[in-house]
Amino acid sequence: MTATPTLAVKLLRAPRAARPHLTLTVSVIVLAIVTLAAILAPWISPYDPDAVDFAAFYAPPSSAHWFGTDALGRDILSRIIHGGRTALVGPLLVVVFSTILGILLGLIAGWRGGWIDAVLGRVFDVLFAFPSLLIAIMAVALFGKGLVAPVIAMSIAYAPFVARLTRSLVAAERTRPYVAAYRVQGFSAPWIALRRVLPNVVPIIGAQSTLNFGYVLAELAGLSFLGLGVQPPTADWGGMINEAQAGVAAAQFLPAIVPAVVVVIVVVAVNIIGEELSDRIGGDVSA
Fold first, then answer.
1. In this structure, are residues 125 and 136 in contact, taking their beta carbons and an 8 Å threshold?
2. 137-169 confidence digits (pLDDT tens)
3. pLDDT tens digits along 6-25
4. Which residues pair with 264 in a beta bridge?
5. Which among 72, 157, 256, 284 is least surrounded, fewest beta carbons within 10 Å?
């Protein structure tokens, strides 16, 4: 009698082409579950995330508290669900703002060229010299703790990455025959750039912005861990890790491990999706 192959064995025996597809599917499902949980947090959360219960502090995992409780007796699962709101909204705002600003600057630099391209290129180089997390810390020092200042600062810090990619793509598209054909037909330069060139480069920019989402999520979580981001008692994944430091010293690891694992899982899922999008779009473009 032969043993039934385990799932791990089946995956190893599966064709290599099928494994990335499975990984992508799992990543999409994970990200969808986390996003839906954050959106539906007020309705699906088992407890009030800020409800303090000193009689249940550091309670172990049970049917009442799946992931246990923290030092104040707050349900960890409820705080994870609600914390997804700030953890996902912040990176989303950064990606949206930085993508819009980067596309605008990159389109101008790539389409116009000349001294405009040179000046914007020097501006991008200056911004590249400062890590985005450092710019966010400087913004917090100037404007105070919270989510607004880091979002604005990181939007400015990530815009050059999008702008440089957009600039190179637009500069390449500008030399293609279809652009010359539109010029001969009398179409204006802004019309060609916005209506024909930009739609051709947006998919590639979108794939890069997806990767940026994962980077920003990790950096904003790190900022909250340092106590410079979202402030207590608002639930936030990075803030939860910060609040759990005292518990780690008392051998209470779960309040710190759970949000840390969630951050890692979400960042990895986003990166897998972004890499897959980049590979597929890059393949389509090269073809």
1. no
2. 888 888 878 888 889 989 988 999 899 999 999
3. 544 444 454 544 456 788 89
4. none
5. 284
CB neighbour class for 92 (10 Å; exposed up to 12, middle 13-18, buried from 19): middle
Round the average pLDDT of the chain to a whole number and report it.
84
Task: Identify the structural domains of the chain with CATH numbers, from first to last.
Answer: 85-286 (1.10.3720.10)
Tokens of 230: 């979202």
Q: At what angle do helices 148-174 and 198-225 cross, to 10 degrees?
A: 150
For the cut 50, the answer to whether the pLDDT of residue 277 exceeds it is yes
- Looking at residue 124, its amino acid is F
Here the tokens at position 45 are 């959360």
**In whole angstroms, what is the distance from residue 236 CA to residue 118 CA?**
41
Determine contact, residues 106/170, Cβ cutoff 8 Å.
Answer: yes
Tokens 């494994």 — which residue? 19
Residue 203 is encoded by which pair of tokens?
Answer: 């998919």
Q: How many helices, marked H, and strands, marked E, lie in the chain?
A: 13, 0
Residue 95 is which amino acid? V
Of 99, 104, 222, the C-alpha closest to 161 is 99
Radius of gyration of the chain (CA): 23
pTM of the prediction? 0.84
Assess contact for 41 and 88: CB atoms under 8 A. Answer: no
